[in-house]
Write a structure and sequence with these properties.
globular, alpha+beta, 7-stranded antiparallel beta sheet
Length: about 300
């Protein structure tokens, strides 16, 4: 009996072990399939999220209370207009579904002024016909920084330009030109990076640094209103609105001087600065929606 019992136990033990291994294998396969299904779901969800910007009603159109005048759509089905020039399109920037511009900033890339670093981002100039000479305008776009975006020391974002549009350390001379791009800084702090008469030699002037912070992982609506000063006056105005809320209002400025108007937009998106400490710490992509310029109704160009 004891021997027979031993034989039964000895015979059933391997079967139990085989069954146990089979259960483990089935569980592992089911877990693998579940993970693959979850991965596909996340990928599809990501494609849906990044396919087109979620435009909040009343933020892009009418953020400054002006009239729509010019729109630049990054549409892969239509050729880019002759009024758009610069670098990056087709190299570090591509147009996806919904007309969203996907901009690659590879690790180590900096402002293109550094020729030893990898080129990343974009540097476009949009000068729409019919805008030249405007005295007041509102620029609007939407920006998406990924949830793991590293701000590092900072980088450039689109803003208004006029005349010879000085950047890259060039002096802004009264009556020659200006640029009013935006920047992100360490920790996501925002600012206006201004090349205007009287700015520090070799760099732009930092205006209202830290007045807002750029969020990560979602679309943010950005608007910049500029009103040039009247001849001989110090009454220029710059405003920034984030998600429709005014975060910066600077008045009493000299921006351009006589003979210079608002001519277009510097569509700059890159890390920098020029030196290596400004470089992108890792590969990343920034998304940019269509860009709009609104103008005040006729007769309101200089009104508050």
């Amino acid at each position: 009996m004891d021997a027979g019992a031993d034989l039964v136990v000895g015979a059933s033990g391997p079967r139990r072990r085989v069954a146990s291994r089979q259960m483990i294998l089935r569980t592992m396969v089911q877990w693998r399939d579940a993970r693959l299904a979850l991965g596909h779901f996340v990928l599809l969800a990501g494609l849906v999220v990044f396919a087109r910007p979620v435009v909040a009603s009343g933020i892009i159109s009418g953020a400054c209370g002006f009239v729509p005048a010019h729109t630049l759509q990054f549409d892969p089905l239509q050729p880019m207009r002759g009024e758009l020039s610069g670098w990056g399109l087709g190299q570090t920037a591509s147009v996806g579904a919904g007309g969203v511009l996907s901009i690659l900033l590879p690790e180590g890339s900096i402002n293109p002024g550094n020729r030893q670093a990898p080129r990343g981002g974009i540097g476009l100039r949009w000068r729409p016909g019919g805008l030249a000479g405007a005295r007041r305008a509102c620029l609007s776009y939407q920006l998406h920084l990924p949830h793991d975006f590293e701000f590092a020391l900072g980088g450039k974002l689109p803003g208004f330009i006029g005349g010879d549009a000085p950047t890259g350390g060039r002096a802004a001379e009264l009556g020659r030109g200006f640029s009013l791009r935006l920047m992100w800084r360490r920790g996501g702090r925002g600012e206006i990076y201004a090349y205007v008469p009287g700015h520090p030699v070799g760099r732009g002037a930092s205006i209202a640094r830290g007045a807002w912070r750029f969020p990560r992982g979602r679309w943010v609506a950005v608007s910049e209103e500029v009103r040039l000063e009247r001849p001989g006056q110090r009454d220029g105005l710059v405003r920034v609105l984030i998600d429709g809320v005014e975060v910066v209002r600077r008045e009493g400025l000299v921006i351009a001087g006589e003979g210079v108007g608002i001519d277009g937009v510097a569509i700059d998106v890159f890390y920098g600065g020029k030196s290596r400490e400004w470089a992108a710490p890792r590969d990343t992509r920034v998304l940019l929606s269509e860009i709009r310029i609104d103008l005040p109704a006729t007769g309101e160009e200089s009104a508050e």
